[in-house]
Amino acid sequence: MTSQLVNANLGYQHPALSRAIADAAMRITTVAPSFYEESRAEAAAAVAAVAPEGMNKVFFTNGGTEANEHATRMARHHTGRQKILAAYRSYHGSTAGSASLTGEPRRWGSEPAVPGVFHFWGPYLYRSEFWSSTPEEETERALTHLRHTVEAEGPQHVAAIVLESVVGSAGVLPPTPGYLQGVRELCDEHGIMLIADEVMVGFGRTGAWFGFDHAGIAPDLISFAKGVNSGYVPLGGVLMSDEIARTFDDVPYPGGLTYSGHALATASAVASLRILHEDGIVEHARELGERTLGPGLQALAEQHGVVGEARGLGAFWALELVADPDTREPLDAGTMKKVAAACQERGVWPLVVANRIHVAPPLVITHEEAASAVETLGAALTEVVG
């Protein structure tokens, strides 16, 4: 139920995807980014085809952390500004720049951080920083807080706001209704670039091609990795708006990677996107959330007082476990380990993060397998906490 690190969207040894990599290896194993390579062009076109209109240029990286590094660098060069705003509840990677963007405690070991990054609180109604009681209040107050943060840093100095479209390892937090639309409007008001970190949720995880699709918005830059090829070969990238791409028509972008658009990686991306289309995987992920995972996990929340909240979209969910449903005190680490062990003994491997069980199976899981896994989670909870 983890898709490894939420990246094996198409499962393991998918025959068409494995075959595409083998065929590519027999044709060409590697070629420098400055040379033309057919699968590199095809992969960029395939990624752009599922993105919002007006986003047609891709810069390939080796993974998600580099994608976020380059997305912020592009925003800075395009705007001529230096400040970047990112959420406290976020994880954007572990290289110097992306670790600085990261808001959750994993950034602490990399501090002092790269200068110019400032954090803010995003919406999280269950543990609201704004004393909200409804989703509408949480959206309004979170947007007001973000506006005040932009004003305090000087909007003329802010190059970009970077957001996970659906917060991933920091909580599996779908944004409250209207929040992403409000961030888009704030960015447009001040000429700030909106960077959507889609590394974890892009390419079908939430039942849409991208997490921001649920809000009907278009960012200026999209960082991606993981689901683009299920991690069969390391690959990430930045998809940029045509306006940003034009910035580098005459002034070369000051960055490059030996393995940018690696031939085997882009061949796997071409095959992966073809499979996602032909097999209706994105639609299947949406149905998993609507028919099986969502109702099943919500039922566990009703049956077990230890489940404070079940939340998610598509094939991306979390159960937040609490010691007391009234105070919402998080369940302790020792008990969480026992719950995980009870699941594993029954053949289900959950992703345990802090006091949460993240449920993120490969998108090719059947409804029957998903229902069985949810039943197993319930049995584990009954055994450990009653």
Q: Tell me the distance between the termini.
A: 22 Å
- Quickly give the structural class: alpha/beta
- What's the total count of β strands? 12
Order of helices and strands: HHHEHEHEHEHEEEHHHEEEHEEH
What global shape is seen? globular
**Biggest sheet: strands, sense, closure?**
7 strands, mixed
Describe this protein's structure:
This protein is of the alpha/beta class and 386 residues long. It is 42% helix and 16% strand. A hairpin with a 4-residue loop joins strand 9 and strand 10. Helix 2 (15-27) packs antiparallel against helix 9 (263-278), helix 6 runs parallel beside helix 7 and helix 11 crosses helix 12 (367-385). It starts with a helix and ends with a helix. The model has no long low-confidence stretch (mean pLDDT 97).
Task: Provide tags for this entry.
12 strands; five-stranded antiparallel sheet; seven-stranded mixed sheet; 42% helix; alpha/beta; globular; 386 residues
Q: What is the compact description of this entry?
A:
By secondary structure, this protein is an alpha/beta fold. The strands form two sheets. Strands 1-7-6-5-4-2-3 form a seven-stranded mixed β-sheet, with helices on both faces. The radius of gyration is 21 Å and the shape is globular.
